[in-house]
Amino acid sequence: MGCRDVHAATVLAFLSGTASVAGLLAAVLLPNWRQMRLYTFNKNERNVTVYTGLWIKCARFDGSRDCVIYDPQWYTAVDQLDLRVLQFALPLSMFTAVSALFLCLIGMCNTAFVSSVPNVKLAKCLVNSAGCHLVAGLLFLLACAICLTPSVWVIFYNNYLNRKYEPVFSFDISVFIAIASAGGLFFTSVLLFLWYCACKSLPSPFWQPLYSHAPSMHSYASQPYSARSRLSALEIDIPVVTHAS
């Protein structure tokens, strides 16, 4: 697997990261983090389900898609600790993942469009594509941890609410979307780490270009020579035979 070529692993990682960020965006916007079922024993009335999201709250009658009560200011009055944590954790996870995507894109563009032998004067200032992908993998892993931890906590906090009040609470589809997106971020980071480990044998530093200087300028250590080998042919004493008169 050559670091100087755009490999299928890096392209697949970029697509997987993009899909994961899209899943996180959907989980953030959907009002389906928690359901609260309110039952009635009056046959002339219908049961009500309250859908709680990170930013809005919607109450619907069973069999209806219209919100009877719609609260767009719910994000300012969230009284559930797990949802309050998610309001900060998921946007932070998205920002981290988008930064990783940007680095991954820089690495691929640097691999595809930059000459394999850069200018010697600018070599130390250039960015290594392998270094970009490695840091992007670390950022994807960090985004996964930021997203996964509070998303799983929702499940345990939901059980806590059922024990404290009544068993009317249940987690909704946004929890599964967020956990699946975190899994996609982890898969993306693993792909980038595998790609980097395959390129690890190249004689290149961590963050510098693959060629720190032009191949023709590689310096080799000079071997010691004997004192006589330094003499040129003209400096070697050659005996001269003279004839006596």
UniProtKB/TrEMBL annotation:
One of its GO terms (cellular component) is plasma membrane. It is found in: Cell junction, Tight junction; Membrane. The chain crosses the membrane at residues 6-30, 88-114, 134-156, 168-196. It is a multi-pass membrane protein. The keyword Transmembrane applies. It comes from the Eukaryota. Its main location: other. Keywords: Cell junction, Membrane, Tight junction, Transmembrane, Transmembrane helix. The keyword Transmembrane applies. Belongs to the claudin family. This is CLD12 protein. It comes from Halcyon senegalensis.
